[in-house]
Prior knowledge:
This protein has helices at residues 25-36, 39-42, 72-77, 95-107, 134-137, 140-156, 184-188, 199-209, 215-235, 298-307, 322-339, 350-366, 370-385, 392-407, 415-429; strands at residues 15-16, 46-52, 59-66, 80-84, 114-118, 121-125, 130-131, 247-249, 258-260, 285-287, 294-296. By secondary structure, it is an alpha+beta fold.
Amino acid sequence: MSAASGPNAATSLRFIPLSHNVADSHASSLRILFALFPDWETAEGEIQFKRFTDGITNTLLKATKRRSGLTEEEIDNDAVLLRAYGKGTEILIDREKETNSHLLLSSRNLAPPLLARFKNGMLYRFIQGTPCTADDLAREPVWRGVARRLGQWHAVLPVQGTPQSAPPPSDGISMSKLAPSHSLEEINAITPEKLTPNIWTVLQKWIFALPEVTPALKERKAILQKELERTVTEFVDLPGLGYDGLVLSHCDLLSGNVIVEPSSVHPDPSTAPSSNTPLNETETVSFIDYEYCTPAPAAFDLANHFSEWVGFACDFSKVPTRSIRKAFLQSYLASYTTHLPREDTPKLDASTAEQQVAQLFDTVDRFRGIPGFYWGVWALIQAEISQIDFDYATYAEQRLGEYWAWRGESGGRDETRLKEGEIREGRWAEE
């Protein structure tokens, strides 16, 4: 790991002692930008903001300085993204870990340069391209591009040295409904023999934070804690790619976080299609938003991405079938093997490669219910803290319904959610 991406890299990043104010977004955004780029305040050219609305957690603004004589592409090259964190999301997201992950990815040319942090957000360069829709993820040129890029991520990014911060005290207004925070020792006890942080310790932190102010909430929290312990027992020691079965995973590869690069942007040769695949049959993609990036089994990251094909509407008819998942994993593993450091690259013949695909396919299949549990717990917390206009409570029930359907149990869920989960399970089993 380079010095620029080490555990203390975030402390050397420029910090702007200002905050973004949702109620006064334009003025507060300008103040932050002028602190970073003083010439933007005095030089000719209008400053324009474009608000992105794909996310359901943060405020994301694209800022451009429209200097005369520049082409649209040149203006976009200087554009900046301002991301202000959703109120109370620090209980969900380790911001120090997020910053270090972004710096690490940038050092490997897998993320745009991170320019600065401010009190409740960060500034980084804009990536030219088009965010995907849920329907785009099912287009073969796109999913092959995603498979290749994700294989590269998992092969080249180290998991050792990932920082972990203690949860914030749950004593603010936004935290008033949540349970008191726990220590890192209590959180990490869920996987005492495993590298931390990891996807299981993240889930433990979230479940610890769930409210318990009524008997019903206390019972729900106890059920989810029992399910976490059950799941960890079943999954924590499964063999997998990477270090100790963990790779540095994105963990949030929904459609809006996949950017299809424009044809004018020269593709990275290391991610270009193989010689027997025409260039126009595989898109070059980049990933954005690294809030949930953490060490996790590769099979979780893959299963989670497949679950995102259904979109926020949870249209389970869009779950990728077995044949598509197998083709995706073939592209993924070919990229993963290509990008492994030379000393770690196994020599695979066709038969061995096919066995590796089959093994990963089976492991991803086993993980298919875990994203529902992960995002269901996440949504339960968002329902308590978020000020964004989104029905997190219903979304939580939808995602947890996926988990209970995978388990083949009711879990106290209503029949509608169980039926939706059964539709998902049926689609997952289609050839």
